User: What shape does this take?
Amino acid sequence: MPEQTDNQDLTDDEKSLIQEILSEDESNLTPYGESRRNFLKMAMLTSGGLMAFELSGAQGFFADSLTDSPAPGIIENILRVAFKVNGNKKSLDIDSRMTLLDALRERLQLTGSKKGCDHGQCGACTLLVDGRRVLSCLTLAASCEGKSITTIEGLADNAKLHPMQAAFVKHDGFQCGYCTPGQICSATALIEEAKRGELSYLSTDVRSKAGPLELSDEEIRERMSGNICRCGAYPNIVDAIKEVHSGKDVGQHWQFLHEGNNAFSVGNLMQKGGENAAI
Ligand code: FES
Ligand code: FES
Assistant: This one.
């Protein structure tokens, strides 16, 4: 019986390529040159391996995991889940361990909900399930069977912004915008929670059955504390929520320099500078 060799499954071209690489005379190389040459050899062999991986069926496993109908038997723990997303019925074959956030972003291309930490710490992935705010990075898609999911893409009424979206625009409640979908979904649910009289960590009377609540700035901050904004747009976010919650116009805390005759106008700043050279 012929002896089994490592090269047995290689084509003639592959065998001669490896032979050529391994047979170089390294006797004249310096230690530095030698290790560099060995590194290049390893890199070439590794890239060859990656090429073979791409050409093999192994790549199909990962591609299949992103399609709506993965080949049965390739992914473990497949189950079918059906729910409504922004009013539309959806049915997906998913790995039972897939999060709601991944199902929406990777399978339904609803990328409005953001993946910030993927650990339930930043709130960027907040969306609504049956009207309640949830962290979709900590929610299994499989647990949403039969439920109604609303993402930031589903809040507006066609071209008409949701009142909370309009308030965020009016009050400049964002800078980079990464946290904004989560902030707006969270704020939308917060308004409903206040209407139902749901208590928070700051509630002082937990015995009486509260009716609709009037939220102070402090209460709004507390109830939004699960949504982190690395740009620090918090004061404007609170203003936006306060306006929607109270139904009353909340003045902006900022103004463009060229606007009006106010304390921050260019004219006033220049005048102040003239009055007091130290400013
Ligand atoms: Fe879900 Fe950060 S991505 S809480
Ligand atoms: Fe940038 Fe909030 S607007 S993280």
Summary: The mean pLDDT is 79. The longest helix spans residues 31-55. DSSP finds nine helices and five strands in the chain. The radius of gyration is 29 Å.
